[in-house]
C-alpha cells in the first residue's frame, strides 16, 4: 500500500492541500486515510449482515425496492431523510447511522475486515495520486458536513413558492461546497400580469439576480466560492436581454450563462428563418425572433465577455446524458457545464490522473491501459460508496441520487500524459489517442458498473430507462448498470493541483512558467494591498524543467532560459534555442487552434455519457465571426455544450503569465492552467475563461 506520508509532494501541492483540504489533521496521510476510511463505511452499510451488526438500530430508513432485470439483485434505495419532518431530525438520524457504522467496524470482525479491505483500496488509489474524488468529498468526508457531491441542478418553477424553495436549497448546497445549475426558462416574461396580485411580473432575469445575491451572502463558508449556471431557452421572450446580461459591469458575477438550443434553432440559423417565441406560463406564442440575429448576438456577447455559452438540450436528452427520459427532460447543467442533470438531481465526480498511467521515459512512454482499467473499477466502486454515505441537503435530492445513482468518472493530466507519450497536443495522433483512451475508459466504467449491479443491484430507475429492452425508451443496447450514467469530463480545478498536475482536465498547458494567487491573495489585490508571499504560488512546468535540465537548458543558463520563455509570453514555441521536437511537445492554450480545441473536446465527448467541460480559447485578435465559427463547429462535431473565450476580453484579468520562476515579481495565473483570462468575481471564483477552472470539482 502507498503511504501518502512518504509521497514526494511538491511545495505547491502541499500549499494547495493545506489551503483547501486539511482541517486539523496531522498531515496529508491522515487526511487521505480519513477520507478513505469514511467512504469504506458504505461497504459495511451495504453488506447483507448490516442489520445483524446493528447498523440500522435507532435509525429511520425507508427501503425502496424497484423492478429490475432478471438475474440481478433487485434494485433498492436506502433513504435516510424521507421520514424526517425537519432538518434537525434528518441530521440526527444520519449521524446515528454513521455512529452505528463505526461501532459495527469496532465490534464485529467481519465488518472490520470488510472496512479495512476497501479503506486500503481507496487509500492506495488516492495516495498514489492516480484518482481523486471531487473537492466536496475531499473536504467533507468524515467531518460534520459529510456533504460529498459537487454538482446539483435545482428546478425554478413559475411560482413564488417554488422560487423561494430553490433559493433555500441553493443556500444549503453552496454552504456545503456544491455548485448549482438552474434553468430559468419556465419563468413568465417581464410585463405579464400577475393575476393574484394584479401586479406585473418582473421577469426571469430579475429572479436570476436573487440567486446571484444569495451566492454573495452564503460565500460557502470561505472554503469554496459560490458557483452557478443559468440557462435560458432560446424561445423565451427575454432571450436577447439574457444574452446581453454580462455586458453590464458587475452583472451576475456568480453565474456562468448558457443559451439552451436545439436542432431546430441551428437549422433556422443556417437558413436565416425566424422562429416563434413562447410564453412559458401559457404555452402561447409571444412573437417571433430572427434565429440568425439571436445567434449573432450570442457570438458578439461571447466575444466581449465569454458569456453566454451553448447547451444543446435536444442532444443531451437524446443521449446517455438522460437515460431516464420517461421521468423528465434535462434543462440545465452544473456551473461548468459538464454535468447535465434532472431537477433535484446531484452527481459526485472523480477524475483519474492520466499522467500516472504512463510508463517508461518521458517523450517515449507507454500508456498502461490494463492499469487504467483496474483503476476504473476501483474508482467506480469508490464513487458508488460516496452515494451511500453522502449527507444530502434535502430529502428529494437524496431520492434522486439513490434512484438514478449517477456518477461522473473522468480524467485529468491529459497534457502531461501526452508529453510523456511524445504526442503533441495539437496533432492527429493525439486525437487518435484521445478516442482510444476515452473509449476504453467508458467501456471499463460500464463493465465496472454492471459488475457492481450483479453484487448490489442496478439503479432503481432502471425499469423504463434506455437500458430496459421492454420499456418505451429502449435505444437498442440492453444493459443493467449500477449507475444510470458513468463518465464525465470535469475541469478538475483544485484536485488537479492537489495531484501535482498543471494540465488539469483535458486542457493543454497555458504557460510553461507562471504564478498564481489563492483566494486570500485575490482579496488582498481587490483591496489594493500586496498579497502575502505565502498566498502566491510560483509555478514552472516540471516536465519541461526536467527535460531542459537533462539537455543542458539548450545551451543557456537556466535563468536565461526562463527569462526567454517569460519574454515570449510563457510560450516555448517560436524560441530558436529550443529544439523543434521539444517545442512541439509543449504547446500552450493559445498555440492550439480553436479547431483543435473543439476536435479534442469532441473526441472525448463521443465516449462520455454526460458532458465535457472544455473552454475553447481564441486569441485577442479573433473576430466575432471566429466565435460564431467555433459555435458552429462544436455543434457540427456533436458537442453537448461549448464555452468560447477570447483572450483579453475581460477588462480586469487578475491572472497572467509569470516572469522567471527563479525570481522576480511573479504575475498571477489560473490555479489550474496558468491562464491570464480570469475573472475574480465570476461564478466559480475565480473563474478561468481559458480552461474553465472554477473550483467546480
What kind of sheet is the major sheet?
10 strands, mixed
Helix fraction, binned, reads: 25-40%
Oligomerization:
single chain
The pLDDT mean sits at 90
Please state roughly what percent of the residues sit in beta strands, choosing from under 5%, 5-15%, 15-25%, 25-35%, 35-45% or over 45%: 5-15%
Q: What is the straight-line distance between the termini?
A: 26 Å
Which term fits the overall shape? globular
Low-confidence stretches: 651-656, 658-676, 680-686
Overall SS class? alpha/beta
Say how many strands there are: 24
Q: Number of helix segments?
A: 22
Rounded to an integer in angstroms, the radius of gyration calculated over CA atoms is 24 Å
Give the gist of this structure.
39% of the residues lie in helices and 14% in strands. The chain is an alpha/beta fold. Among the domains are: 273 residues, no CATH class; 183 residues, Anaerobic Ribonucleotide-triphosphate Reductase Large Chain (Alpha-Beta Barrel), CATH 3.20.70.
Provide the fold topology:
Layout: H1 11-20, H2 28-45, E1 62-65, E2 76-79, H3 87-107, H4 109-127, E3 131-133, H5 135-140, E4 151-154, H6 160-175, E5 179-183, E6 193-194, E7 199-200, H7 204-218, E8 228-233, H8 239-243, E9 255-261, H9 263-271, E10 274-278, E11 285-290, H10 291-305, E12 309-312, H11 313-317, E13 332-333, E14 340-341, E15 346-353, E16 358-359, E17 366-367, H12 369-388, H13 395-404, E18 407-412, H14 414-421, H15 428-456, H16 493-498, E19 513-517, H17 519-526, E20 536-540, H18 542-550, H19 558-567, H20 580-585, H21 594-605, E21 615-618, H22 624-636, E22 641-646, E23 678-679, E24 687-688
Parallel strand pairs: 4-5, 5-8, 8-9, 9-12, 15-18, 21-22
Antiparallel strand pairs: 1-2, 3-15, 4-15, 6-7, 10-11, 12-22, 13-14, 16-17, 19-20, 23-24
Helix pairs in contact: 2-3, 2-4, 2-12, 3-4, 6-7, 9-10, 10-22, 12-15, 15-21
Amino acid at each position: 500500500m502507498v503511504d501518502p506520508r512518504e509521497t514526494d509532494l511538491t511545495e505547491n501541492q502541499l500549499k494547495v492541500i493545506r489551503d483547501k483540504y486539511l482541517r486539523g489533521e496531522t498531515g496529508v496521510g491522515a487526511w487521505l486515510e480519513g477520507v478513505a476510511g469514511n467512504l469504506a463505511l458504505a461497504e459495511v452499510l451495504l453488506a447483507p449482515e448490516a442489520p445483524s451488526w446493528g447498523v440500522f438500530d435507532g435509525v429511520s430508513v425507508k427501503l425502496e425496492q424497484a423492478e429490475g432485470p432478471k438475474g440481478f439483485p433487485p434494485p433498492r434505495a436506502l433513504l435516510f431523510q424521507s421520514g424526517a419532518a425537519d432538518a434537525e431530525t434528518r441530521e440526527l438520524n444520519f449521524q446515528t447511522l454513521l455512529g452505528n457504522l463505526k461501532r459495527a467496524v469496532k465490534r464485529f470482525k467481519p465488518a472490520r475486515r470488510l472496512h479495512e479491505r476497501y479503506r486500503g483500496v481507496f487509500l492506495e488509489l488516492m495516495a498514489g495520486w492516480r484518482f481523486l474524488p471531487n473537492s466536496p468529498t475531499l473536504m467533507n468526508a468524515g467531518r460534520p458536513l459529510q456533504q460529498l457531491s459537487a454538482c446539483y441542478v435545482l428546478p425554478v418553477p413559475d411560482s413564488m413558492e417554488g422560487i423561494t424553495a430553490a433559493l433555500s436549497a441553493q443556500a444549503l448546497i453552496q454552504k456545503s461546497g456544491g455548485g448549482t445549475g438552474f434553468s430559468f426558462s419556465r419563468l413568465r416574461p417581464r410585463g405579464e400580469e400577475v393575476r393574484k396580485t394584479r401586479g406585473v411580473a418582473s421577469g426571469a432575469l430579475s429572479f436570476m439576480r436573487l440567486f446571484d445575491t444569495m451566492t454573495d451572502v452564503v460565500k460557502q463558508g470561505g472554503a469554496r466560492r459560490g458557483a452557478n449556471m443559468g440557462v435560458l431557452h432560446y424561445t423565451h421572450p427575454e432571450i436577447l436581454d439574457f444574452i446581453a446580461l454580462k455586458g453590464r459591469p458587475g452583472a451576475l458575477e456568480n453565474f456562468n450563462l448558457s443559451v439552451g438550443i436545439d436542432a431546430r434553432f441551428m437549422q433556422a440559423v443556417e437558413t436565416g428563418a425566424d422562429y416563434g417565441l413562447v410564453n412559458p406560463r401559457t404555452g402561447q406564442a409571444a412573437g417571433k425572433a430572427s434565429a440568425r440575429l439571436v445567434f449573432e448576438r450570442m457570438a458578439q456577447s461571447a466575444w466581449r465577455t465569454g458569456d453566454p455559452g451553448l447547451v444543446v438540450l435536444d442532444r443531451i436528452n437524446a443521449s446517455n446524458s438522460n437515460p431516464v427520459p420517461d421521468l423528465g427532460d434535462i434543462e440545465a447543467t452544473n456551473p461548468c457545464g459538464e454535468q447535465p442533470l434532472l431537477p433535484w438531481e446531484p452527481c459526485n465526480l472523480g477524475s483519474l490522473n492520466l499522467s500516472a498511467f504512463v510508463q517508461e521515459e518521458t517523450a517515449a512512454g507507454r500508456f498502461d491501459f490494463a492499469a487504467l482499467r483496474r483503476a476504473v473499477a476501483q474508482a467506480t466502486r469508490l464513487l458508488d460508496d460516496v452515494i451511500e454515505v453522502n449527507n444530502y441537503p434535502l430529502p428529494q435530492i437524496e431520492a434522486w441520487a439513490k434512484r438514478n445513482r449517477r456518477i461522473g468518472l473522468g480524467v485529468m493530466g491529459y497534457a502531461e500524459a501526452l508529453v510523456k507519450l511524445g504526442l503533441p497536443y495539437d496533432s492527429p495522433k493525439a486525437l487518435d489517442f484521445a478516442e482510444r483512451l476515452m473509449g476504453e475508459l467508458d467501456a471499463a466504467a460500464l463493465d465496472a458498473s454492471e459488475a457492481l449491479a450483479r453484487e448490489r443491484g442496478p439503479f432503481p430507475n432502471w425499469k423504463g430507462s434506455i437500458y430496459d429492452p421492454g420499456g418505451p425508451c429502449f435505444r437498442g443496447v440492453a444493459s443493467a448498470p449500477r449507475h444510470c450514467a458513468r463518465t464525465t469530463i470535469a475541469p478538475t480545478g483544485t484536485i488537479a493541483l492537489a495531484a501535482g498536475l498543471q494540465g488539469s482536465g483535458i486542457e493543454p498547458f497555458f504557460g510553461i512558467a507562471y504564478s498564481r494567487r489563492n483566494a486570500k491573495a485575490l482579496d488582498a489585490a481587490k483591496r489594493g494591498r500586496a498579497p502575502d508571499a505565502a498566498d502566491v504560488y510560483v509555478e514552472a512546468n516540471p516536465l519541461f524543467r526536467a527535460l531542459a535540465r537533462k539537455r543542458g537548458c539548450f545551451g543557456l543558463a537556466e535563468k536565461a532560459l526562463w527569462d526567454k520563455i517569460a519574454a515570449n509570453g510563457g510560450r516555448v514555441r517560436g524560441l530558436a534555442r529550443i529544439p523543434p521536437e521539444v517545442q512541439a511537445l509543449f504547446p500552450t492554450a493559445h498555440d492550439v487552434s480553436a479547431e483543435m480545441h473543439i476536435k479534442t473536446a469532441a473526441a472525448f465527448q463521443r465516449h462520455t455519457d454526460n458532458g465535457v467541460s472544455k473552454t475553447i480559447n481564441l486569441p485577442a485578435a479573433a473576430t466575432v465571426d471566429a466565435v460564431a465559427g467555433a459555435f458552429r463547429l462544436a455543434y457540427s462535431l456533436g458537442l453537448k455544450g461549448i464555452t468560447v473565450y477570447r483572450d483579453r476580453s475581460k477588462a480586469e484579468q487578475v491572472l497572467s503569465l509569470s516572469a522567471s520562476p527563479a525570481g522576480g515579481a511573479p504575475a498571477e495565473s489560473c490555479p489550474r492552467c496558468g491562464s491570464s483570462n480570469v475573472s475574480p468575481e465570476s461564478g466559480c471564483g475565480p473563474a478561468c475563461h481559458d480552461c474553465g477552472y472554477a473550483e467546480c470539482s
